Amino acid sequence: MLVEVGKVTRPHGVRGELKVREADGSSGAWRQAKDVYIGSSPETACRFDLQRVRPANRLVVVSLEGVDSIERAENLREQIVFVPRDQLPQPEEGAYYACDLIGIQVRTPEGRNLGVLSRIFDFGAHELYSITDGESEILLPVVEGAVKELDTRAGFMIVELPEGL
Known about the structure:
There is one protein chain. This protein is mostly beta strands. The chain has two domains: 2-87, Elongation Factor Tu (Ef-tu), domain 3, CATH 2.40.30; 98-159, PRC-barrel domain (SH3 type barrels, Roll). The chain is 5% helix and 47% strand. It contains two helices and twelve strands. The strands form two sheets. The protein has a six-stranded antiparallel barrel with strand order 1-2-5-4-3-6. Strand 1 and strand 2 (17-22) form a beta hairpin. The chain is elongated. The two termini are 34 Å apart.
């Protein structure tokens, strides 16, 4: 399984390095991976050996084996960066990778099915979960007490909706 971790914004310099904007909520754990896949989707992505990753303001600069010129780097502009899920370290107790949460069923403590968790937005102060049922969307602020139960193996989450949702 490939996990989206960022997007190439543009080449950096003339030696083939790439500037990458990390995905929302990225912990940066992917930077320790051995290889990355770059392409428009997981199905079309090509594998590259990851040589080096270093911070550069709000982005990171990535060096890949075989990408050693600005021309080769230019071919990767605006492509998505993926890593194999099994190359990410296990998250700490009580923490989860977004890829492990996307697609799980969400319901209330009373058993009302709200839909599936389709997207996670990270706004710094707290995350916002997008829960969709095919017809509508609920945007749930993930504040203390919002998630009552989470079972990624069984594929469900129980949430307490704030008043008005």
